[in-house]
Amino acid sequence: MSSDASFSLVLAFDTDDPEFTRGVEMGRFWEQLKTGESVDQTIHATNAEMAMRACEALEREFTAEALDDTWIELHVAEGA
Description:
Blueprint: H1 18-34, E1 39-44, H2 48-57, E2 62-66, E3 71-76
């Protein structure tokens, strides 16, 4: 990921609690996984363990690539 890449929220949260942000990110990822379609998503490194657990729970094959200390790119294969 280039150093000039940035992410922003479509809708600002009403809290700065990092755990809230992590939960929203994982909720979105979980819903994408449930569709059975392939998923390519960049997530916070702090959610890596939860993303792995979600993929395992839904029996989805995945690969992950650390982009830097903050971001991970997930590639989830199409599944059932």
